[in-house]
Amino acid sequence: MIVAITGASGVIGKAVREYLEAAGHTTIRISRNPDIADVHWNPSTGLIDAKGLNGIDAMVHLAGENIGGRRWSKKQKTEIYESRIKGTELISSTLSNLDKPPVVFLSGSAIGFYGDCGSTEIDESFPTGEGFLAEVAADWEKSTKLAEEKGIRVVHLRTGIVLDPTSGMLQKVLPLFKFGLGGKLGNGNQYWSWISLEDEVRLITWLLSSDISGPVNLSAPNPVTNAEFTKELGKVLNRPTV
Questions:
Q1: Is the Cβ–Cβ distance between 46 and 90 less than 8 Å?
Q2: Residues 6 or more apart whose Cβ sits within 8 Å of residue 11
Q3: Could you tell me the CA-to-CA distances from 204 to 31, 138, 218 in Å, in that order?
Q4: Would you call 196 helix, strand, or coil by DSSP?
Q5: Paired strand residues for 159
Q6: Within a 13 Å sphere around the CA of 103, how many CA atoms are in the beta-carbon half?
Q7: Cα-flanking dihedrals φ and ψ of residue 185, to 5°?
Q8: Can you give the pLDDT of all 242 residues of the chain as single tens digits?
Q9: For residue 172, how far is the Cα from the chain centroid?
Q10: 194 with 135: CB under 8 angstroms?
Q11: b/e burial code for range 170-182 (CB count within 10 A of at least 16 → b)
Q12: How far, in Å, CA of 7 to CA of 5, rounded?
């Protein structure tokens, strides 16, 4: 299988690429960086080397501005929104115009789609929530419309909090917890729908060859509260938690 990947240098994208290549598949990196790109693109200007995508079997679209990388200024929120919407629209349009489009298009999304649901148990049948992240996720998913109309099987990857000690949220909090300074946030009642990086990669690669389309929640079956997560992480590290 020939799989094109955006965000291939990110944590999830890199792990997916390495997993696929180890299994004998061929990957094509779509990047703004010409030094690593097999296919060059620039979502903000609508530039993409469409010829380099001829003959691909699948597209995995994971590119987008890091949600937790910087303070959410007005400018940063615009960057978070546009990097997802413009990028997805460009990929969707490009795929729909290929002479031989891929069979499947896995497009990034997030469980932020549901907004803050407290302790209410939800699934992919629930409507869009409220707030900035819900708006971003909803418009993100709508941006695949052209690919869907072309008959490409589209899957929206509604990903939870990805846990990996070398990246993301867990990487940031581990030093504090190791020094015994870790603690819950506020009252600790916030629910965290989490998934390990390993399971994230396995689910994405499984979805490539499945017959599923539409939204899929990529998270462990049992979410935990922030207080429960804090207690468990302290226990694993044998450190006190406040």
A1: yes
A2: 162, 164, 166, 167, 168, 197
A3: 20, 20, 9
A4: strand
A5: 110, 218
A6: 10
A7: -95, 120
A8: 999 999 998 999 999 999 999 999 999 999 999 899 999 999 999 999 999 999 999 999 999 887 777 788 888 899 999 999 999 999 999 999 999 999 999 999 999 999 988 888 888 889 999 999 999 999 999 999 999 999 999 999 999 999 999 888 888 888 888 888 888 888 888 888 999 999 999 999 999 999 999 999 999 988 999 899 999 999 999 998 87
A9: 18
A10: no
A11: beebeeebeeeeb
A12: 6
The two three-digit tokens of residue 86, written as one number: 């413009």
205 φ, ψ (degrees, to nearest 5)? -70, -35
Exposed / middle / buried, residue 118 (Cβ in 10 Å: 0-12, 13-18, 19+): exposed
Token digits for 38? 């097999």
Handedness of CA 205, 141, 37, 211 (dihedral sign): positive
Q: For residue 94, what are its two tokens?
A: 């490009």
